[in-house]
């Protein structure tokens, strides 16, 4: 896509209140042409004094923040031809529109505006409906909130609220663990039925003396049928019922915790589809695991429990009302994600570290303790339930991803550290290559696989490819091993002698988690070098084409499995060359290979090392080799690509704030980042004006001003900020100044919390003619202490403030405290 940094858009606004009737034309201006106004401005062509917005005038329909791109220039999204969201007309049409305006400037009944693009490339599909909005992590410290604080400003209430927080975190841990059990038990039972049937089918159809008419095509067809049926079911649920459940869910959770509102991410229906989708995908034999989606499931559980109501079932339990805001909900979602990871891996400390290292953007000491408690409760509950289900008296099912304990302590020699570092370098290279290939495949999907039924067919096709490749490997690689040497659950004899089984079939006739466990604990000599070589290459390919399908699957298991396979393979090759190398424990190097590959793909270090140690029972002394391997993998991988979660976030065009300001903005000032002029509201303003600006624009924050000269609101002195959701609630409840005597004693902060989080839209508001002259006094509703910065402040300084406080809006003022612009998170990304 051609960059259009200096492109200007010519906007023609119709008189209708409906946004769909707005006619938008865009024309490219020559870079050498003299600009009418300053860059990044949005100013009427007429004389500013003549174009002032009066109460009876039409408010400005669009402004720069309406055209905030939803994607960076590195990942431009293709625009469908003929789409209703296509707002960019042809060049000739735009030029004619511009010429007509210049020739007859008086022939238009409505103001025309110039808009300078805020980004290097605009996703035109996002102009009609900007999908992603920011969350309000900054508490609205208005009069109603302060009154509630005064009423509850006592030690008893604070202790009660703190106890409720702990109760919620404990509930999150218990419920998340139970959901993990509901997911795990069907997978284990259905997989056992599937592989038992396939094993019997293969044994009964091998052409031997007892069965000369055997035909191995029959078990092949059975395998395909038993794979595509659950895969199609799961893909259909994801595609038609809840598309947000596709993938592992970690990029979405990470974006949510960063401050971006991802539509439908924490709904009950999302959780139900996620659970069923994971079961069907894993049972269908797709290359993926159930562990990754558990973080998403835990986040949904946390969001639901902490609010004390269900908007899906329209049921309010009238509990936990004090936690109904984005700031409180964020902390609970973080604890839920940690509880999900702890249940998946049986790693409480690893779950807490995973949430802090990979997901969280904000945390404090108290939150760490609560998150750890939720993780411990989750892991312990799952251990009890699964151990009881399997009839065990000792607690051995610590998590869904149970890698088993090593029989002998894992020891290492210091001369092995360079080998571990080389493993890390290899994992970083392979991870970067995998991330790159997967990204290109997903871009191909986004471009060509657009229809819903095509996504379902694609998932079924990938399942067929996986079954076909597995059958080819099992048929042609005759790796026979004696029975009893390794604990395989479904030994397939095939062409082997009596009391022997096919080692290649053993790798495929079980769940991916069981395969990883086999590679860790199978004794030396359990596989041929050729077997693991082909298996590694095929599984690497399958994992690459599977991650990104419209199914609910995680990436942790296939990545770890590929790493364990090539780690064990390298140990076998070195032992074949140097038979006297007694330190080459294949299980140990399988673990190092898994860590290297996971580090290369996910770019995790501390949390991943703790998770691997807790899931395998490795000694604390082995932490050093793991962390050396992971750091080496991360450093090498970061040189080429980002982690897979960050790549997926960018491909989804989610405006996630990085930890540091982008280098291209360093040295800039606030005046170079801000959007201006700003649509403002007077402290006491007309209901008609407020209604019309809500209809005309999609902004979610409006500076409240006073000391306004006439109706020139954009130059008023800042006295607060009011949110779009607040204004809609005010209009819906008819909280007009003229009727204050009727609602003054009944209004409270609960009026706004009761409609959280699904605030009504402006379409649900009707403003009768008799109420258009009413006024709204925002003094008790607005936040009187918005974060303000000077137009001369450096971009680095304001970015640190913006990110640390979790802001949604930052007002830019001059020395007289008058509004000169506003900054949102997208200004730090797409300016």
From TrEMBL:
Domain CBS: 674-738, 782-831
Record key words, sorted: CBS domain, Chloride, Ion transport, Membrane, Repeat, Transmembrane, Transmembrane helix, Transport
Gene3D superfamilies: CBS-domain, Clc chloride channel
Protein name: Chloride channel protein
Bias (Polar residues) ranges: 70-89
Compartments (UniProt record): Membrane
Region entry Disordered, spans: 1-89
SMART domains (UniProt xref): CBS
Organism field: Ceratitis capitata
Family, per entry: Belongs to the chloride channel (TC 2.A.49) family.
A GO-annotated cellular component: lysosomal membrane
Chief place of localization: membrane
TM helices/strands, residue ranges: 166-187, 220-241, 271-289, 332-355, 367-392, 412-435, 456-477, 529-549, 556-578, 590-613
Keyword Transcription regulation: no
Membrane topology, as annotated: Multi-pass membrane protein
Molecular functions per Gene Ontology: chloride channel activity
């Amino acid at each position: 896509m051609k960059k259009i940094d200096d492109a200007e858009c010519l906007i023609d606004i119709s008189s209708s209140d409906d946004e769909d009737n707005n006619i938008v034309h865009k024309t490219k201006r020559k870079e050498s042409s003299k600009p009418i106004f300053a860059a990044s401005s949005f100013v009427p062509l007429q004389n500013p004094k003549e174009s002032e917005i009066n109460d009876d005038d039409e408010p400005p329909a669009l402004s720069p923040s309406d055209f905030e791109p939803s994607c960076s220039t590195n990942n431009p999204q293709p625009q469908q031809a003929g789409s209703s969201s296509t707002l960019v007309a042809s060049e000739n049409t735009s030029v004619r529109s511009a010429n007509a305006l210049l020739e007859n400037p008086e022939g238009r009944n409505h103001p025309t505006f110039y808009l300078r693009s805020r980004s290097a490339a605009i996703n035109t599909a996002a102009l009609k409906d900007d999908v992603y909005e920011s969350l309000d992590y900054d508490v609205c410290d208005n009069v109603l909130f302060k009154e509630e604080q005064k009423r509850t400003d006592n030690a008893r209430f604070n202790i009660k609220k703190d106890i409720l927080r702990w109760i919620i975190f404990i509930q999150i841990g218990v419920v998340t663990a139970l959901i993990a059990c509901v997911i795990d038990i069907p997978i284990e039972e259905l997989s056992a039925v599937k592989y038992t049937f396939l094993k019997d089918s293969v044994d009964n159809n091998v052409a031997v003396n007892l069965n000369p008419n055997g035909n191995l095509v029959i078990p092949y067809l059975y395998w395909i049928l038993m794979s595509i049926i659950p895969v199609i079911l799961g893909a259909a649920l994801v595609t038609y019922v809840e598309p947000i459940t596709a993938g592992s869910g970690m990029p979405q959770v990470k974006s949510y915790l960063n401050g971006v509102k991802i539509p439908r991410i924490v709904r009950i229906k999302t959780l139900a589809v996620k659970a069923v989708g994971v079961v069907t995908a894993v049972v269908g034999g797709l290359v993926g695991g159930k562990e990754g989606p558990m973080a998403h499931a835990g986040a949904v559980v946390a969001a639901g429990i902490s609010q004390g109501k269900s908007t899906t079932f329209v049921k309010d339990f009238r509990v936990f009302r004090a936690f109904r805001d984005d700031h409180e909900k964020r902390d609970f979602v973080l604890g839920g994600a940690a509880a999900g990871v702890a249940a998946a891996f049986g790693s409480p400390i690893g779950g807490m570290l995973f949430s802090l290292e990979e997901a969280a953007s904000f945390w404090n000491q108290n939150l760490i303790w609560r998150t750890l408690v939720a993780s411990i409760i989750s892991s312990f509950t799952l251990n009890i339930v699964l151990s009881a289900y399997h009839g065990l008296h000792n607690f051995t099912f610590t998590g869904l991803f149970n890698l088993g304990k090593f029989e002998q302590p894992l020891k290492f020699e210091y001369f092995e550290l360079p080998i571990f570092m080389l493993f890390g370098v290899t994992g970083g290279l392979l991870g970067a290559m995998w991330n790159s290939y997967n990204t290109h495949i997903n871009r191909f999907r986004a471009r060509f696989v657009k229809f819903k039924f095509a996504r379902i067919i694609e998932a079924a096709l990938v399942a067929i490819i996986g079954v076909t490749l597995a059958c080819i490997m099992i048929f042609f690689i005759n790796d026979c091993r004696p029975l009893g040497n390794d604990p395989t659950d479904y030994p397939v004899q095939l062409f082997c002698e009596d009391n022997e089984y096919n080692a290649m079939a053993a790798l495929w006739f079980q769940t991916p988690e069981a395969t990883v466990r086999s590679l860790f604990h199978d004794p030396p000599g359990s596989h041929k070098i050729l077997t693991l070589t082909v298996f590694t290459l095929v599984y690497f390919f399958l994992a690459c084409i599977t991650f990104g399908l419209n199914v609910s699957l995680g990436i942790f298991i296939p990545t770890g499995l590929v790493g364990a396979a090539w780690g064990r393979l390298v140990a076998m090759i070195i032992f074949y060359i140097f038979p006297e190398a007694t330190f080459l424990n294949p299980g140990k190097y399988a673990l190092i290979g898994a860590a290297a590959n996971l580090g290369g793909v996910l770019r995790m270090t501390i949390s991943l090392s703790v998770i691997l140690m807790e899931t395998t029972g490795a000694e604390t002394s082995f932490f050093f080799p793991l962390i050396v391997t992971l750091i080496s993998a991360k450093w090498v991988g970061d040189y080429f690509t980002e982690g897979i979660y960050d790549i997926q976030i960018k491909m989804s065009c989610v405006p996630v704030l990085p930890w540091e300001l982008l280098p291209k903005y360093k040295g800039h000032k606030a005046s170079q980042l801000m959007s201006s002029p700003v649509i403002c509201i007077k402290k006491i303003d007309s209901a008609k004006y407020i209604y019309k600006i809500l209809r005309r624009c999609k902004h979610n924050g409006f500076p409240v001003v006073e000391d306004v000269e006439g109706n020139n609101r954009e130059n008023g002195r800042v006295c607060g900020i009011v949110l779009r959701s607040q204004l809609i609630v005010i209009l819906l409840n008819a909280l007009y100044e003229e009727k204050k005597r009727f609602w003054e004693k009944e209004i409270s902060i609960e009026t706004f919390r009761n409609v959280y989080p699904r605030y009504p839209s402006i379409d649900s508001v009707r403003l009768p003619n008799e109420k258009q002259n009413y006024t709204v006094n925002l003094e008790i509703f607005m936040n009187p202490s918005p974060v303000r910065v000077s137009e001369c402040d450096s971009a680095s300084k304001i970015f640190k403030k913006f990110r640390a406080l979790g802001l949604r809006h930052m007002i830019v003022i001059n020395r007289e405290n008058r509004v000169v612009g506003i900054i949102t998170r997208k200004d730090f990304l797409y300016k």
